[in-house]
What does this fold into?
Amino acid sequence: MDFRTLPDLPRLRLANMTAPACLLGQQGDLVPLALTIEGGRIVADDPAAPAVDMGRAMVFPTFTDMHTHLDKGHIWPRTPNPDGSFAGALTAVGGDREASWSAEDVRARMEFSLRCALAHGTSAIRTHLDSIPPQDAISWGVFREVRADWAGRVDLQASCLVGCESVGTPAFEETARITAASGGVLGMVTYKVPGLQAYLDAFFDLAIKHGLDADFHVDETLDPTCNTLKVLAQTVIDRSFDAPVTVGHLCSLSTMPEHEALETLDLVAKAGINVVSLPMCNLYLQDRHAARTPRFRGITLVHEMQARGIRVSFASDNTRDPFYAYGDMDMIEVMREATRIGHLDHSGPDWPLAFSVNPALACGFAQPSFAPGAPADLVICKARSWTELFARPQADRIVLRAGRAIDRTLPDYAELDPLMRA
It folds into this structure.
């Protein structure tokens, strides 16, 4: 039988699979698993049900991608990064946003990314939305429509994104109002700037006023003197802010003196902050200099975080835009690259949580599960071991939604050509 062909039966048992033990609440690495599916859901395992021998294929619940930029995605063909630098990305995106981000343009590119994510096996996404007026009204309006259209296929959340110096202005107060009215998450970028504490206080005042979770881009630099994370974590503690807080990037932790980095992580653990690492984008942008080989990877201190009980996740970040020229909204690619870049192998068996359970918990999405009653939303790969999984892109994976294999045909980049000529 073709691996990708499953019989369409009202009750079906997928036998002889393996799954990461941590996703079943067990100790160990890969463990045997059989799942019986009926009515679009996992039911109590029934050895008497019609069965398919899956040949030890690895199975995962569908993925949560908790840090993306759907509004920026796929603008590279019309506005590439001129030199691959962070500054080049900022300038390129700013110009493209002002010139081209109409509602129609943003929606078309969002939809393209979501079709890719669905085909690869992602069922929940948090996206950041550039929210400098008047873009906030445009992009949030599109997001609300897209979220409704994609309900039941990909669950969507959004977080506003502005520089910290915008906080405290009437414009940001309006952005916070739009965010709250859209069921969103309050977000901003923190960097080394005079008056950071006042910006943070104003930010948390608005988060409390509107009852919003918080999501920050933090210290996306290799400058060892940049540690806004420490100020942020202490502010969360001092204000007893009890809504979920997520921080992403944290690149400078990898270059600052180790004692300072570890003391900062102790504060992050005390504050109960969630961390999301974006290794593909950081590897692309950080330590890039013309005619010089990069020395640093840009990945944050994920092993030290895990040792402190900090909830760590990994995510796609940017896709085919000036901040990252590549990517396809594929969480198996993220898992593969994070494992290689961050040496997650040889370091304990629980890292699969960082691509499914942890991001879902951080964002408040429904928890992925293999338990009876859970939706039969699964990603099944022919690989029988981790080395087989990571050696190939798993292009022949099966994605089940409500127990049925979906069409995994990816959208053609040529569909975006009219936008690129705009």
